[in-house]
């Protein structure tokens, strides 16, 4: 039986621009009746996304969160349960593709990339699992990248962190699946057509065209599809790419 998530809450960690993956995932889950707690570091951006959700008839609460701070994560998840109802989904979407040649990487750079793209996913996943185990249900979903599967310079630090995040997700799936918690990892194999890429690398879209980039709304559909799966047929890992992507 597919699950009914109405009256529950979803926490999306890593929401920035309205035209971005985190925002699209929050909107998608909210459309299905979950109260969306949108978490990122910039209140103005979170308020825009929360307003969009409310204007579409959903429920949303912006929560300024630096997910690299454990206290912020604990506060965020407790707030979601207190104000939004049982925690039915937590998405760890924060991640930023910082790149350098290996010889130019000092330890601080490598560690910072690892902290956001791996360690913080572990903290969020652990805290989500602790709370979901009480009910014996819920899904914990992680956003991966091409780099989760393949390390290419100058993305070696990012790839090592994303590969490790993937391992965290796989380990969690095996530990918590039998206890009713569905853990999923989505490999985004290509560039996302959102503000993150379009503002940092304006030439990218000119090079590959719109068809060569992933649509954040379609990515969000895939996240919700995993969340809604009946427990007798669960996906651990899904890869998504534009149809013209070379891989
Ligand atoms: N963009 C791509 O082409 C691409 C390709 C493959 C995979 N991915 C993966 O997809 C995910 C989403 O990427 P996106 O580019 O579409 O970005 P997005 O979902 O639009 O935004 C993610 C947001 O996370 C927030 N964030 C960063 N550090 C944070 C922290 N410490 N605590 C809380 N929030 C934080 C940032 O907003 P604030 O700065 O306002 O906090 C950022 O805007 C990432 O995991 C990325 O690695 C992206």
Number of domains: 1
Major sheet summary line: 7 strands, parallel
Give me the CATH superfamily.
NAD(P)-binding Rossmann-like Domain
The N- and C-terminal alpha carbons lie at a distance of 35 Å
- Fraction of residues in helices? 40-55%
Determine the oligomeric state from the structure: single chain
What ranges have pLDDT less than 50 throughout 5 or more consecutive residues?
A: none
Gross morphology is: globular
Strand-residue proportion: 15-25%
pLDDT averaged over residues: 97
- Number of helical stretches of at least 4 residues: 8
Total strands: the figure is: 9
Radius of gyration: 17 Å
Polypeptide structure, described:
The chain is of the alpha/beta class. It has a single domain, classed as Rossmann fold. It is built from eight helices and nine strands. The strands form two sheets. Strands 3-2-1-4-5-6-9 form a seven-stranded parallel beta sheet, with helices on both faces. The longest helix is centred in the middle third of the chain and has 26 residues. The chain starts with 8 loop residues before the first strand and ends in a 7-residue tail after the last strand. The structure holds NADP nicotinamide-adenine-dinucleotide phosphate (NAP).
């Amino acid at each position: 039986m597919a699950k009914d998530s109405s009256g529950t809450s979803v926490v999306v960690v890593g929401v920035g621009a309205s035209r971005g993956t985190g925002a699209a995932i929050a909107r998608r889950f909210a459309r299905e009746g979950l109260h969306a707690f949108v978490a990122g570091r910039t209140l103005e951006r979170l308020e825009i996304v929360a307003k969009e959700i409310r204007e579409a008839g959903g429920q949303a609460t912006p929560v300024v969160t630096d997910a690299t701070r454990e206290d912020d994560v604990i506060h965020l998840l407790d707030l979601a349960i207190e104000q939004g109802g049982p925690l039915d989904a937590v998405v760890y979407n924060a991640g930023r593709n910082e790149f350098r040649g290996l010889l130019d990487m000092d330890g601080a750079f490598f560690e910072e990339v690892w902290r956001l793209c791996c360690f913080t996913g572990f903290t969020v996943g652990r805290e989500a699992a602790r709370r979901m185990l009480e009910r014996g249900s819920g899904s914990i979903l992680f956003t991966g990248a091409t780099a989760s599967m393949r390390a290419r310079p100058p993305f070696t630090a990012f790839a090592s962190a994303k590969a490790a995040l993937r391992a965290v997700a796989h380990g969690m799936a095996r530990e918590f699946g039998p206890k009713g918690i569905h853990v999923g990892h989505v490999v985004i194999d290509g560039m996302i057509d959102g503000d993150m890429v379009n503002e940092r690398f304006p030439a990218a879209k000119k090079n590959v065209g719109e068809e060569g980039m992933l649509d954040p709304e379609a990515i969000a559909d895939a996240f919700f599809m995993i969340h809604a799966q009946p427990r007798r047929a669960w996906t651990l890992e899904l890869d998504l790419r534009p149809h013209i992507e070379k891989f």
